[in-house]
Amino acid sequence: MSHAGTSTVDDAYRICESITRTEAGNFFYGIRLLRRDRRVALCAVYALARRIDDIGDGARPPAEKLTALAEVRRSLVDLDRSADPVLTAVADAAARLPIPLGAFDELIDGVEMDVAGRRYDTFADLVGYCRCVAGSVGRLCLAVFDSRPDARAPGYADALGIALQQTNILRDIREDLGNGRVYLPHEDRERFGVELGLDARGALADPDGRLSALIRASAARAQGWYDEGLRLVPLLDRRSAACCSAMSEIYRRLLGRIASDPSRVFDRRLSLSGREKAGVAVRALSEWPV
């Protein structure tokens, strides 16, 4: 049952699809493989998650960011009465599917860590953060996918989200450092003898190759999380499996390139071309024909 007039809900979903098509550079290649009712629901989930992320990454003072995040958190309690199109779409999706709205609260918790400038001493600390900002999204996606009942599925979805977030962290070391954020755990940097900094060109400094060694070790560790998370795929129906496979493979390829040559992330934001991403989606369709 819709929470507003049909045209209002349809309009809300169209807005969320537009946001996703424009902003979800990697994810949309997989999302478009879902059948329409699931696709629009996942676009609604993405649009709200993006709104939360954008608050954390925006230019407002920390106090204003925390206020804005608190407002989003309050809005989740009373979705039915919202006139906001993104919230309208999420409310309708949650009425149709078992979407765990509490996962958005976890995402907000993670973004609040960013706003507070949290330090990550151990890898376990970092996993806790990744579980909030990305494992939560994995579990939201699982609720939209068609899957057979399996008590292990939420854990696999969580692991896959954590794997993707670790890939993002390795890709964005330089950009995050410029924004005053360091996600590489202190224990890892200490073990490899790494002091993060920029050289005269504004690129990550790595005079002795220690940062490259740390990145390679971190990439190998992230691959283990992919191995665990991708156990989810056989539990999904064909369209959901194709979607999940496409989204994951784009990030796995990115991780592989970083591992093979860490210097690729020293002075730029590494990404796959649109043609490569489309190719990944086509291959996912061939593996899981829909």
Task: Lay out the secondary structure.
Layout: H1 6-23, H2 27-31, H3 36-57, H4 62-75, H5 85-96, H6 102-116, H7 123-144, H8 153-171, H9 173-178, H10 186-192, H11 210-229, H12 238-260, H13 274-287
Helix pairs in contact: 1-3, 1-5, 3-5, 3-6, 3-7, 4-6, 6-7, 7-8, 8-11, 8-12, 11-12, 12-13
CATH superfamily heading: Farnesyl Diphosphate Synthase
Q: Which CATH architecture would you pick?
A: Orthogonal Bundle
What's the total helix number? 13
Shape call: globular
DSSP helix fraction: 55-70%
Poorly predicted regions are 1-5
Oligomer: single chain
Order of helices and strands: HHHHHHHHHHHHH
Largest sheet: none
Alpha carbon gap, first and last residue: 27 Å
Query: Under CATH, the topology is which?
Result: Farnesyl Diphosphate Synthase
Care to count the β-strands?
0
Number of folding domains? Answer: 1
